Predict the 3D structure of the following.
Amino acid sequence: MILNINTMRKENRISILLIAMLLVAIVPFSTAQDKKLPNIVVLATGGTIAGSGASATGSSYTAGKVRIGEMIDAVPNIRKLANLTGEQTANVGSQDMNVKVWLILANRINELLAKDDVDGIVITHGTDTQEETAFFLNLTVKSDKPVVMVSAMRSASALSADGPLNLYNGVAVAASPESKGKGVVVVINDVILSAHSVKKMLTTPVHAFQAPEHGQLGTANFGQVEYFHNPHGLHTTQSEFSVEGVKELPRVDIIYGCADVSTDLMELMIKAGAKGIVIAGVGDGNINTGTLEAAKRVTAKGTHVVRASRIPIGQVLIHGEVVDTKWGTVASDELSPQKARIVLMLALQKYGNKMSREKLQELLINY
Ligand code: SIN
């Protein structure tokens, strides 16, 4: 039917004009909120991905300068992948990440993912402690919807900044139905890595992140997502840990093993408030006899001590050169000292220091 506006009554002409004006007002809204696209919330915490420096070719920069809206707007076509909403949870270099922000993040993610109109989460983060935040969230998020962490090795103002493509790929991974049930993943340098297995292996190059024991879960190439494997370890909906209403976690400290390490560290840490200790031991989680004797004393009084290793790749065996039952220790199995610390903090929060050695050992193996 063709309407001739000139032959219409004045009231009808006005109504059509009003409807046309309304449509013009709605169009930008429906482009921004495309019903066919998933709704992804981006939680920004800072890091080099949000970093800026005076020179594009200099190595010096300050992390956590660029805010989330600016970061999203800098990525071409990112809004074609998903409807994006940004929230600035923190804006720090991840060397300043802390348990307080972890608890805020976990609780906010659980709140968001409980909504029918939120399909996934992307977290922007510094690379230095990214694997710890990923692992903490892997154990405390209560949803099988995608949760993806992205970061960058080069600041936003650097020549060949890697952040924009990592963010683009991270959103593509969060928008992919294939990412459901994979736990928290890290997307960087075109690969998808599980929170359980991801490790920062190199200090500065863009291929710093690897999963040396289990390999990458998949790839994300200019938004094309492909998975090859499922993650190791229990995660998210399978996890027994919850941080709902939790305001702090018990303090757990790490002793770094080396030749002639001071043997009074463990008791000094406990005196300062530590409720559990992780040893980043040498080799297969070994440590000098003086520190093992300290472990025997403190475990007898109820403080848990976990043996992990300062070596980046491989397992710490139960009853290796160190016989754990003799010293009261447990072994971290596949977990790095910093990830074993997270299991111990959550376990102490849930079960208290009356938890048996056997229970703690089981948790370290399961997660
Ligand atoms: C940081 O972890 O915040 C600084 C280093 C980085 O993001 O690459």
